[in-house]
Every structure is written in C-alpha cells, then in structure tokens.
Specification:
Helices cover 36% and strands 15% of the residues. The protein is α/β, with parallel strands linked by helices. Helix 1 (35-45) crosses helix 7 (255-267) and helix 5 crosses helix 10.
Length: 449
C-alpha cells in the first residue's frame, strides 16, 4: 500500500506535494504572455526554491500584477525567425533549461465568414514551424533539457468535427478528417526527443479558463461582455443554443490547474514520455451555470425552448469522427459573433468602457474572440469529455470546481480593468428576478460575487 500527501491552494484541491530535495531547477516557458504561459509562470513562481530561474520567452512580456519575480526573466523572441537567429539570442542571454514548457501558438486568420480553425493547412505550417525552429535552436547552443512539455488540446480528439469517441482517452486514434497541427507538433517533438535522448510530455486541455490581457481563445471574456452589455441594454441573458447544448456536460480546463498538472508531469519519473488530458475533473453544464451567471450580473435569463425556432447547421463529416451514427448538428437562435457586431452592442460597449475607464475600449477581433465562445456554447455531443483516469493512476489528484474557477476568472478580468465590477453593477439593480432552482443553496455573497 502506498500513500500520498496533497495540498490545497485557494480553490484548487488535491495538488501534489513535492520532496524538498527537488530544488535549484531552471525552466523555459515559451508563449509566456498567453493564457497558459502566464499561468505556468504563476505556478512555478510559487516555489522559488524549486524553480530558481525561469526564462519567459515570448514576443511580448507576460503580465503579472506587481511584476514578475526576481527568479523570472523575459526574453523577446519570435519563433518564426530562423533557428540560428533564435540560438544567437539564447546564447547571449545565457539561457539554460532543465525543463521546457512549450505554449507558443499562432491563430491564423480564417477566411471571412469561416470557422476560426478552418485554415487548417496554414495552421499546421505555422505552428509546427514555431516548435521546430525553437527545438533546433536548443541543439545549436547545446541546451539539453531533462523533459520537454508540449501543450496541445482537446481538438486532438476531433470533437470539432462532430460526435467522437467519448470519454476521450489519451490512447484514442488520431482523427484524420483534415490536417491537425497538434499531430504535426507531436511528431516533431517525438522525432527531436528520440534523436537527442530527451524525455517528453504532451498535455491536452479542453476549454481553458484564465484571465490575461489577450482575450483570444478564451470563453470567459466574451461571456462577460455579453452579460455586461445585456445589463447595460436592459436585456435578459438569452442562451443562444438549444436544449441539448444547454444540458451537455462539457470539460473545462482551468489554466492554473493545467499548470499544476504540467509541473507534476515533468517532475514525475513514471509520467515520462506520456500524453495526459488536463481537466478540472468537475461536472459542468451550461444549464447549472447560466442561472448563477445571470445572478452575478443581476439579470433575467432565458432558457432554451424545446418548441422554439432554431436554425440548424449540420456538420459536413458523415460519418462523424467516431465512424458511425449521424453527423453533428448545431441548433442556434443567434450566434454571439453576430450579436457582437450589432451597432447597438458596439456602441453599448464603447459607453461602458468610457463610464468604467476600461482598458478594452472597443471590441476587436470579434470573429476570433466570440467565435471561440460560440463553439464552446454550441457543442451538442460529448466532444470535450476528457478522461483523467490515466493521470489519476499515476498519482495526480488535482481538482477545481469549474464554476468557482469561472467566477475567479471574471474577478481577475475586473482586476485587469477589462470589464467593470459585477458587484458594482449588481448594487444598481433590484435582485428580485434571479432566483431559480439552480441558484438555491448558494450564499447571497456567492450570487452577487
């Protein structure tokens, strides 16, 4: 029989406790200004004796309230430069790395009106080039990490194309309906590590929850904007998609918990050369979250109507990724991308930004930012239902309540000055319309944020 010691940090529970003998380590975090890179930095900075030097590589510096700690150093680099150019900077800055956490990513602009990941071949070319250029630069300056961690995502399992195998397990076969840069990046990593005798990990989160100044690939910011504008315009919080999407259990992956898992993976010998899903391990449905969400902003809300009028969109892959059954179908009353382009919404946000002195004065990149939220809200099959069995068997026990995590992310966006305070908005309204069976049992402080 074996035993483990775990710890709690804030809303995050079951986190590993490492031996005091693990100390004096160096790390490289790439994509350090993004949603995952910044939270990875936050996690490593919590253990300055374990991580005594952290090199943060990105085109722009990571944002940290109060600045990054003394153990961290930002290096401005573009991995679309040649390996020789990258290596020159690494050498000049004295970079060394026991462990590498690779999060660099470029979202290629889709064709107008097309889904955000539709330019699949260019996504493969650009994002694989980011990784290969960086890896080759390491060998040029003789940096040999003990472990390289590559974060990809749940699109590995093909749920974006329709019903797939569920729950998704790390051993599931690749879905080859169209090019997927996650596969190209994995192959690049495996080849490099095999050639240079380096161990690796791949981590696959679903919808990542976290607050950073760049709101791309983040469901939280567009959802907050939607609620705040509805409040400003005196409109209810209407769920855009159908009853099936409303009730679907969908994996959320909080950026902090992902980072705790990634630290655990690289420091665990038995986890070497393995891929892991990253999940809050919390059951989450929009049907339970939406009433709470509405209560935070003192809004009425509208649930899907089984007899309502919806537009249908059938995905083109028949059969779907799992190889049998009908193709995926999405049913919607409206899309957030269309909503965000309405003149009254555009003007409302400008007014809100002025009144609250927000850093986000206008809504930019609507197709990219709100398109990701549309995808998250619309899934009407178990496309993101990540199994955590593999990590659990090796000793990972991390957990966070996804609803608590979402609430904390909204508060973090308030601290960044990107959205107004929900508590301020709530004080200006009568809280008589937010009670529902889904809000019973929660304290008033929780409901009012």
């Amino acid at each position: 029989m074996s035993s483990q010691v775990v710890q709690t940090r804030g809303i995050f529970h079951g986190l590993p406790v490492f031996s005091d003998d693990i100390k004096g380590l160096t790390a490289v975090i790439t994509g350090a200004n993004g949603i995952s890179g910044q939270h990875m930095l936050r996690v490593l900075m919590q253990s300055p004796e374990r991580w005594t030097k952290i090199f943060c590589i990105s085109r722009r510096p990571p944002y940290m309230d109060g600045g990054i700690s003394k153990v961290a150093e930002h290096i401005a680099l573009d991995f679309l430069d040649t390996p020789d150019e990258i290596a020159k900077v690494l050498l000049e800055r004295g970079v060394r790395a026991d462990y590498v956490f690779f999060f660099s990513y470029v979202q290629v602009e889709p064709e107008p009106g097309s889904p955000i990941w539709s330019n699949a071949e260019e996504m493969c070319r650009i994002n694989t080039l980011l990784l290969s250029n960086f890896l080759e630069s390491l060998s040029l300056v003789s940096i040999k990490p003990r472990r390289i961690m590559l974060q990809t995502g749940a699109k590995h399992y093909g749920g974006q194309f329709g019903p797939n195998l569920s729950p998704q397990e790390e051993s599931d076969p690749r879905v080859l309906l169209q090019p997927n840069f996650y596969y190209d990046q994995e192959d690049c990593l495996f080849s490099y590590c095999d050639k240079h005798d380096i161990k690796w990990n791949v981590v696959r989160p679903a919808f990542i929850l976290g607050a950073v100044p760049d709101a791309a690939m983040n469901i939280c910011f567009p959802l907050a904007v939607y609620a705040i504008v509805c409040r400003h315009l005196g409109q209810p919080l209407d769920f855009p998609y159908d009853l099936t999407a409303w009730d679907m259990n969908t994996t959320q992956s909080s950026a902090m918990l992902n980072s705790y898992l990634e630290e655990w993976a690289v420091l665990t010998d038995t986890a070497a050369n393995e891929a892991f899903n990253a999940s809050d391990d919390s059951v989450f449905t929009w049907s339970k979250f939406w009433p709470l969400f509405a209560s935070w902003y003192c809004l009425d809300y509208i649930v899907p109507d089984s007899k309502g009028i919806y537009q249908d969109f059938t995905l083109p892959h028949d059969p779907p990724p799992r190889g049998y059954g009908p193709p995926g179908k999405v049913r919607f009353k409206f899309k957030l991308t269309e909503w965000a382009k309405q003149p009254e919404v555009i003007q409302a946000w400008k007014d809100i930004a002025i009144q609250n002195d927000l850093t986000v004065k206008e809504l930019h990149g609507v197709d990219r930012v709100f398109g990701f939220a549309d995808f998250a809200l619309s899934v009407s099959w178990s496309g993101a239902n990540l199994s955590m069995s593999k990590a659990r068997k090796l000793g990972w026990h991390g957990f966070v309540d996804s609803t608590e995590s979402l609430r904390e992310v909204f508060l973090d966006f308030e601290k960044l000055g990107m959205i107004p305070s929900a508590s301020t908005l709530a004080r200006s309204c009568a809280s008589t319309n937010t009670a529902s069976p889904s809000t019973k049992g929660y304290s008033q402080a929780w409901l009012e944020v």
